[in-house]
Amino acid sequence: MATRSSHSGNDLPNATSLRRTIHQHLLDIGFSKNCDGYFVDAELTKQKIRDLHATQRLQNLEHNSSFIAVHGQELSSHFATGRQVNPASIDPELVEVTAESSESRLFRFACLLWSVPVSQGFGRRLRFLVRDRQNGCLIGLFALGDPVFNLSARDNWIGWTHEDRCERLVHVMDAYVVGAVPPYSQIIGGKLVAALMASTEVKKVYERKYLGLEAVISKKKKRARLVLLTTTSALGRSSIYNRLAIPNGARFLRIGTTKGFGHFHLSGEIFESLRGYLEAIDHPYASGHRFGMGPNWKIRVARTALEKIGIDGNTILKHGVKREVYAIPLASNWQDILLGRQRNTHFSTLSASEIADFCLSRWIVPRAARDKRYLSFSRHRIMDCMLNGGPGSTW
Q1: Which of 36, 161, 343, 345 has its C-alpha lying 20 to 30 A from 11's C-alpha?
Q2: Rounded CA gap, 54 and 391, in Å?
Q3: What span, in angstroms and rounded, lies between the C-alpha atoms of 129 and 28?
């Protein structure tokens, strides 16, 4: 392995080969290239975005092949058949996921169905399964984690300065996994799962786990009151979050879009090659992925490695796939808390049962009455999807 030296740019070992590999990878997954960099030469439909993630998803399934082989049949039994679901009787139960548990295995397994692979989250982390008490089967899942530090749509909407954000980002969490699984996804169960993120039950779990905890980086004890959730759409315009509002409860507010900048198209083997390159030159970013070093480690690795092999990082990292950004206030005075004007929080959350009652009558029961295709869903399709790299979240 090479060590740090006076060499730079194109003189570094394997730089030319790595540049060619990255170029071919981007062309293979659907990007085009011009003098300004790489871009998607097509309308960014939901299917096009799925296609851009297809290689990453297949690599993810391959990486988890042993896990699927060992646990897949048992875990797929937790999914309902269409005939097991009576839409009017859906009764969601929130189940907190703990590490190395059977719920953790089910959470991991269900995430493999997503057509856009999900991250592992970082920092503070809460994961939940949503089960249906009427049949014991899985409705969906969600996960909350530390938000990214730089998100202009969020910061401009709140009215934050840099100092405000440094001091009070602790009061925000980001939903990095949200969704229903089939057959519930076929009757708009995703809206129910998303709305449950803002329930009183989730707030209580957060307070039990994190209220008054010492921050890893600053070493200060912070009264981290969860007053705002954020999330971003996976496939452009969100059909789940759009017009999602619960009377006297959660409202999903569209506050802007991301800038189309990131590293999803450099995931898997490509990212590991970039990280390995930094490791070969003894760069500290190569082994910097641990809590306390910040949420943008992958961006720093990708940008630094690209520049070391002679590529302007912006021409690669600016992929152009913009996602909608949503905010979900959990307190009536959320803005005063986040701007430091008040300290006492006035929460406005509802119970899971109150949220479910509204979602069933507003969306789920009417959809099930109009579209009966969910009734034909068979759980064997779950394993077919896993083993054959099937359609992901489209059924």
Answers
A1: 36
A2: 10
A3: 35
Tell how far CA 3 is from the center of its chain.
Answer: 36
C-alpha to C-alpha distances, 51 to 56, 117, 120, 179, nearest whole angstrom: 10, 12, 21, 19
Using alpha carbons, select from 279, 311, 276, 292 the residue that is nearest to residue 9: 311
Residue with tokens 């790489």: 38
Could you please report the per-residue DSSP string of 336-363? HHHTTS--S--B--B-HHHHHHHHIIII
As given in the structure block, the two tokens for residue 258 are 């991301």
User: Does the pTM exceed 0.85?
Assistant: yes
Beta strands in 207-336 (DSSP E): 228-232, 253-257, 324-329
- 393 is written with which tokens? 């979240």
Scan for tokens 């030159």, then name that residue: 281
| H-helix segments, the chain | 15-29, 46-63, 65-76, 102-111, 152-158, 162-168, 189-196, 200-210, 269-280, 297-308, 313-317, 334-338, 352-359, 365-370, 380-388
pLDDT (tens digit, 0 to 9) for every residue of the chain, 395 residues total? Answer: 333 444 444 445 588 899 999 999 999 888 888 888 888 888 888 888 888 888 888 888 999 999 999 999 999 999 999 999 999 999 999 999 999 999 999 999 999 999 888 877 678 999 999 999 999 999 999 999 999 888 999 999 999 999 999 999 999 999 999 999 999 999 999 999 999 999 999 999 999 999 866 555 555 666 789 999 999 998 878 889 999 999 999 999 999 998 888 888 888 889 889 989 998 888 888 776 544 444 577 888 899 999 999 999 888 988 888 899 999 999 999 999 999 999 999 999 999 999 999 999 999 999 999 999 999 999 989 998 888 765 554 45
CA distance 105 to 162: 39
DSSP 117-143: PPP---SSEEEEEEEETTTTEEEEEEE
Q: Which of 93, 119, 107, 348 is nearest to 232 (CA)?
A: 119
